[in-house]
Amino acid sequence: MPESSAASAADPGLAGVNALPVERCRAEFARCLDVGAWVEALARGRPYASRAELLAAAGEYAAAVSGTEIADALARHPRIGERAEGEHTEARWSRDEQSGLEGADDDLRAALRDGNAEYERRFGHIYLVCASGRSAAELLADLRARLDNDPATELRVAGRELRAIALVRLAKLLDAQEAAAGRPEARP
Fold first, then answer.
1. What is the band of 79 on the pLDDT scale with cuts at 50, 70, 90?
2. Of the four, 82, 85, 115, 144, which is 20 to 30 A from 138 by CA?
3. With the C-alpha atoms ordered 172, 173, 174, 177, is the resulting torsion angle positive or negative?
4. How many angstroms separate the CA atoms of 28 and 39, rounded?
5. Which fold has domain 3-186?
6. Cα–Cα distance between 117 and 145 in angstroms, integer?
């Protein structure tokens, strides 16, 4: 068995991603980062020999995302502190990523809303941060610190955060494929 086939067989999540029909693969990758060039590069790179290889490629391709692509992707993200509605994958992931806001009191939520509004006035796009594992107070402190950035610097920071979210979501996609492989009804 070739090395990439053996690695893929040992990792049902990776095997699932490698085996997806190309259109479904594109749709799944777009849930992680809805930037066409990134999605296409990842889809063309299949099959991946390991999760590490896939994540490294995803990070490399995400680093090449342009300012315009970042701005377009920002327009599709929910604001920090706003609950994503629906049961689709992206909404569930967003709620999970922002779970640190669940215990925030009304004053902290109001400060985040005000900070979001100030940020949007200053930069012309939403405040985006990889919120996974971070508390509401940490997110507010980050938001306030980033208000001191100039627009070009902030676009780079937002791009870095967008890439971090993409990698977190790609890991979730791999985990979901692994879980699906364990369910008999999910097997082809």
1. confident
2. 85
3. positive
4. 9
5. UraD-like (1.10.3330)
6. 15
